[in-house]
Amino acid sequence: MIKRLLLVLAAFVAVLVAAVAINTARQGSRQVQVAPAPALALDANAVADKLAGAIRFQTIPSQDDPAYNAGEFRKLHAFLEQRFPLVHAKLKREFIGDLSLLYTWQGTDAGAKPVMLMAHHDVAPIAPGTEGKWDVPPFSGQVKDGYVWGRGAWDDKGNLVAQLEAAEMLLASGFQPRQTVYIFSGADEEVSGQRGAKQAVKLLQERKVRLDFVIDEGLVLTEGVIPGVAAPAALIGVAEKGYTSIQLKVTAPPGHSSMPPPAGTTAVGQMAVALKRLQDEQFPAELKGVARDLFGTLAPEMKGLQRVALSNLWLFGPLVEGQLAKGASTNAMMRTTTALTIVNAGNKENVIPGVAEATVNFRILPGDTRASVMQHVRSKVGPNFELKEWPGSVDPTPVTSTDSAAYRQLERTLRSLFPEAIVAPALYIAGSDSQHFVPIADNIFRFSPVRAKPEDLPRLHGTNERIAVANLGELVRFYHQLLRNLNAPAP
Questions:
Q1: Which residues lie below 8 Å from residue 232, measured CB to CB, with a gap of 6+?
Q2: CATH 3.30.70.1060 fits 44-240+397-487, yes or no
């Protein structure tokens, strides 16, 4: 009897191993094969000089004061007008909310849906006390050792300069787009885009404009960032997580610390229990939606056990989810995240406070909503708590289909320029101005071909922000080729 069971078990294992091997082999590469893009004569050093000049203007915005640093913004606008004369002579320029820029390049086909290139020319402030840690002063706009250094080089003046340079070159060659092209650059993206992007959308809605696609900052061309993937990966953000912060408030009788009531009945005690429950009982991590599409695209490009596991999620799904949940970035792609960010209670060491407050920040996965997050919090903290959502909360964006013509066009453009790169859809876990364009855009992409290695990631909003001169040239070539491809017949 035991021998028969062992034989049955061995046969089952053999069938399982065969099924895994066959299924792994069947998962072929999803990368499209396209002809290389034509060469482009480009003076990357001249473009670097333009970006360096743009960095010298300290265009740091304020959440509350629309006029903050307005003089710096206007100096930058004048600089752009001087350095990109054809763009400013032939495209219509409008000021949105006084300091944001909207350019309109009229197309030849009035029936074709327009497209929009986006960037922003405001920048994050320098963390106080870190100025001396920069290799060059952050607003000096220096080109050194093959890089353009300074705040905004990557985020996001590099993209704006590259877009304007591509348009300038195309105008000089006599190019005329078939569909109208908008170039929008916000002046308040770092403080939510309410005065810039949101007002631009309102204006375009009044003009009954419907966009085929928007492409904005977001994910990048990673090199060595994804474990198991040796090739560069061009990750296209096809959706953006939502955002909400919820304030928790609980009250209880105050008292003297010499006669404390049971710990769970004080305001601080109740708050501690509630926060621990929110921390311990988070939204589940699941490999679904955009995250599943990403790893399904990457799997055929991997080797060994990683390829086997990701190609057979029907068997290894729980194991893969457990491993991915251990990494901060991959965990954020699979769940609505919970972060305890503010706690306030008490003002004297020997007085038990009667009020405790805390704020918990959630980055919302597509499929969840602000309402479902509020319901989740209420179920964990109980009825004694007053809950209030902070201003500025937004639901996740819709997911742009990878089967759309716009995605395929972007994919083909990238493969023609970066044939060594794996192009894959991904979830953008931060925020961008593009979220405001959901009401008027069929497709939204969050990507630019900024090359980023693991050691580069802390430079974003951090110290020693920079972009390679050669990479800046690649950005120009990318936007130049994308616009040219829009005029080409569909393959």
A1: 221, 222, 223, 418, 420, 421, 422, 451
A2: no
